[in-house]
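Entry 14. Ran structure prediction on the chain below.
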Amino acid sequence: MIYTVTLNPSIDYIVRLDKVLIGSVNRMDSDDKFAGGKGINVSRVLKRLGIDNKATGFIGGFTGKFITDTLEEEGISSYFVEVEEDTRINVKIKADAETEINGPGPDISILKLEELKSILASLTADDTVVFAGSSPKNLGNTIYKELIGLTRKTGAQVVCDFEGQTLLDSLEFEPLLVKPNNHELGDIFGVKLESLDEIEKYARQILDKGAQHVIISMAGDGALLVTQEGAYFAKPIKGSVKNSVGAGDSMVAGFTGEFDKSRDAVEAFKWGVACGTATTFSDDLATAEFIKETYEKVEVEKR
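Output, structure tokens:
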């Protein structure tokens, strides 16, 4: 079974209007509300691929109920630890310029943290756990080392979608996959990466530090999978970019879901590219039909 862990989920409230006038009343043209959080996005895309999974993390209040109701409507099992404070709301304003106002999220007590640890400690070597996104402020991202270590003791595989030091900290646990973009990879090593050869070079350093597979996403310039067996480049697919939110999560879902079935890293990479690209060309997370259509356009070559 694949589990996704979202420690600080949100309702993503999308507001659309032509222009924001500071200090005035603004009337939106349209709005949408989505169950948000990187792990939750992975769960939703996995389900669209026909892959059962379970979502866990922390949830609270009426906002948390919106998220669990949304997951239930989509047929996704959830095993969230309920906390007293409300799950956060992130406001994303799409106007003449895009603006985000993100909530801090609830404080998590030691007791509630232990409940989550109990869930993770009950897993087996047949499970894969996706850890993604930020942690509630009072826990800090350092909590991931403890949670990932606990999970790995059960024999379960882990997928880690983080940036910076949190990503580096995860490598001692030999994650199945990490997925920085080219800019995040450069920031880790304090360099500016300008060629595919340079990107591969530093991705291999991530492998050397413990990762089993590394995917470097490069937006409109394609993506690179680096493994111990070789490096594989996915050519960019042309289309109209509508949405960058959730594209990386979709790529993680595509790779993790296929690898869990086939253990074929290159095939999993193709599905990851298809999912990420399809979401980029969609208003929300991509539909199953569009993902399959996009998969037919994926071209991967060994370097």
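The chain is about 40% helix and 25% strand. Will compare against last week's run tomorrow.
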